[in-house]
Design goal:
CATH architecture of the largest domain: 3-Layer(aba) Sandwich
Shape: globular
Number of strands: 16
CATH topology of the largest domain: Rossmann fold
Helix content: 40-55%
Number of helices: 28
Oligomer: single chain
Strand content: 5-15%
Radius of gyration: 25 Å
CATH class of the largest domain: Alpha Beta
Structural class: alpha/beta
Length: about 650
């Protein structure tokens, strides 16, 4: 049955090994543990001790009288608040790290992108002329930190959005006051006996999500770029085959780059490499899982061992000396599983402990010391290895397309612009754009929806950007390398990819870096020719295999920014027709974006293309017609050569004529 759980041959191989060893994995547990149909539909309320109340009959209410609409809205709003909290708290930690670096209190770190620091300072309205870099960095960190506790006014980064979008937020009182302020507002109003109007509850959910997308998460992305460098494309590898049979394997898993970057540096320390050799290893190999992987592969070329559902499979190879985790998306099952192998599970965050794991608390003030302790622990564990089984499956990928680089690649240093991309959309060469992001979910075949949806969109000349586990999913099948354009892209998109020299799927970072997509959409809207707001652009957002509350927060802030967003798998509000209407039709009327849950990947593609064409028509653009494209210079030259080799008559000049 393993082949029905994942389309990844490496995962299939390891799942068969798990079955032979009688090991439990997320895949097997998903088969054994059926979801509660009441809770899955949003029909269960457990916010007070009079319940839980299960609303399964027509017209039934909770003990307090709460209706199904109120219960479903509360559940969704609380999930969005939790997701916004997780990603925004990441941003808070990054702000603390920047302050520590600026004060000289964080050895091992430095400000690597001064240009990004100055750009962020300018967006914050700070003076930079004649000031030391560290002084500017300190004030940027302090202003970023102030956004969390701010009680009145607006978040600074809202000014980055297109003017029409800002006006919508202000008119509807959706502009977030402060990041923590909006989270607390949701938790208060969804307490028993408070807000009992579904539409009103969901309105605040949008506001809270904006505090994440245009606040906490955007801060996390900016500060990561300042401290570790703004990503640009490089080549690295992905899948379980990146693990080494004759080296100490350290796998970093989680989300915060302060830890992972320090561990990466430690694995490259000559003294520790020699120490590893003294234990019988040829060296130290480091690989990533989940969004930590995205952080390190796009900046330092660290290979990725896979996405969310690979975390257990990596341990089952028997080749991992230490799995080092920080926050988010970490399965508690890793602890028991690692006990069945020699792997050391190491927790590092003061927020996260797992029973049975080794806890070595990370502190950016002593990062090199902590990182070396962790790597030394892994090296000492190398002689304890037993049987090793590493799948010989891996692929190349090109990650690191920050919005800054996407602008640069279209015109170079002096002419960097989104004009070429907008022109390609206007001409119909690119039909539209899609952000296909998010998690894996063991309730559906791993990677299958990600791969199907993206390949279908490419075939229809839709440029795809990806983040998080979705990016890693398609990287495993070769879609994030330049050659993929020749195999998968439609004729118009292929021309664009050939001209610029890019993959048809652009890796834009970790899941917190979905804010880069917001910036990309803003630049397209303000460039001209595609309307004046994000909601005018022929584009969609898709989370095919979502599972996390963070995904709901991300989806909501894209909706509030004017994007049509589609989620796969299942709907957490399916039990309420009214809430389903509010988040789709109601939100579209209010903010121009809407949220729909569609389990069928084929229908997701259909709805996406229909929406893109609808937006093209509203803009008065030419109707999409792929037959007008696909004969770029490179392609024609290839055809001429093929015909000439066959001995067919061919005239280069005649063929090349318009």
């Amino acid at each position: 049955m393993s082949d029905k759980r994942s389309m990844d041959p490496a995962a299939v191989e390891m799942l068969k090994r798990a079955e032979e060893m009688h090991l439990s994995t997320a895949f097997s547990r998903a088969e054994e543990m059926k979801p509660c149909p009441i809770g899955a539909d949003g029909r269960c309320c457990k916010i007070c001790n009079m319940g839980p109340c299960r609303l399964v009959k027509e017209g039934q209410t909770g003990i307090c009288g709460a209706t199904l609409e109120t219960v479903a809205a509360r559940n969704l709003a609380r999930a969005i608040a939790a997701g916004a909290s997780a990603h925004s708290d990441h941003g808070r930690d990054m702000a603390f790290a920047l302050i520590a670096v600026a004060k000289g209190e964080a050895p091992g770190y430095e400000i690597k992108d001064v240009a990004k620091l100055l750009a962020v300072a300018q967006d914050m309205g700070l003076e930079t002329e004649g000031r030391e870099v560290e002084e500017i960095a300190l004030e940027v960190g302090q202003v970023a930190l102030s956004q969390f506790g701010q009680q009145r006014g607006e978040l600074i980064y809202l000014s980055r959005a297109p003017e029409p979008r800002q006006e919508i937020w202000r008119k509807l009182k959706l502009a977030p006051r402060g990041i923590d302020r909006e989270v607390v507002d949701i938790l208060h109003r969804t307490h028993m006996g408070d807000d009992q109007d579904a539409e009103h509850i969901l309105h605040q959910a949008l506001r809270c999500s904006l505090a994440d997308g245009w606040g906490g998460s955007m801060i996390a992305t900016d500060v990561s770029d300042i401290l570790f460098g703004t990503p640009s494309p490089l080549v690295t590898k992905v899948n379980l085959g990146v693990l080494k049979e004759d080296e100490v394997n350290v796998v970093i898993h989680g989300h915060e780059p302060t830890l992972s970057m320090a561990v990466v540096d430690a694995t490259r320390d000559p003294e520790l490499i020699e120490y590893a050799k003294s234990k019988g290893a040829k060296g130290i190999n480091i690989a990533g899982i989940c969004c930590t992987s995205n952080e390190t592969l796009m900046r330092q070329g660290v290979p990725s061992a896979g996405n969310f559902l690979h975390q257990e499979l990596a341990i089952i190879t028997g080749a991992v000396e230490a799995m080092v985790v920080d926050v988010q998306c970490i399965m508690q099952a890793l602890s028991d599983l690692s006990d069945k192998f020699h792997t050391k599970l190491v927790t590092t965050s003061p927020k996260v402990k797992i029973k049975g794991a080794t806890h070595i608390e990370f502190d950016e003030h002593r990062a090199p010391e902590v990182a070396r302790e962790i790597v030394r622990l892994a090296i000492d564990n190398y002689p304890n290895r037993r049987e090793v089984h590493i799948p010989e499956v891996l692929a190349d990928l090109v990650p690191g397309f920050s919005h800054e680089y996407i602008r640069y690649m279209q015109g170079g240093y002096y002419r960097a612009s989104f004009r070429p991309l907008n022109d390609a959309v206007i001409a119909g060469r690119v039909r539209g754009a899609a952000g296909v992001v998010g998690c894996n979910n063991p309730r559906v075949c791993q990677d299958e929806a990600h791969h199907y949806i993206v390949t279908e969109l490419l075939k229809n000349d839709v440029l795809v950007v990806q983040t998080g586990c979705g990016a890693i999913a398609n990287a495993k099948y070769g879609l994030l390398q330049g050659e993929a354009a020749l195999e998968y892209a439609g004729p118009g998109l292929r021309e664009v990819c050939e001209t610029i020299g890019i993959p048809p799927v652009l890796h834009m970072g970790s899941c917190v870096d979905n804010t880069r997509i917001l910036t990309l959409l803003t630049e397209m809207a303000t460039e001209g020719g595609l309307g004046s707001d994000i909601s005018d652009i022929p584009g969609v957002g898709i989370a095919p295999e979502w599972m996390s509350e963070k995904a709901l927060a991300i989806g909501a802030y894209f909706v509030a920014s004017g994007v049509y967003v589609l989620f796969g798998v299942s709907s957490p509000v399916e039990g309420s027709e009214e809430v389903t209407r509010v988040i789709s039709q109601g939100w579209e009327e209010k903010v121009g974006g809407k949220l729909e849950f569609e389990p069928d990947p084929g229908k997701i593609v259909e709805k996406s293309l229909e929406h893109i064409d609808k937006k093209r028509k509203a803009l008065g653009l030419v109707e999409y017609d792929p037959s007008r494209f696909g004969r770029s210079g490179d392609r024609r030259m290839q055809e001429w050569l093929e015909r000439r080799e066959k001995g067919e008559p061919v005239s280069l000049y005649k063929e090349a004529a318009p």
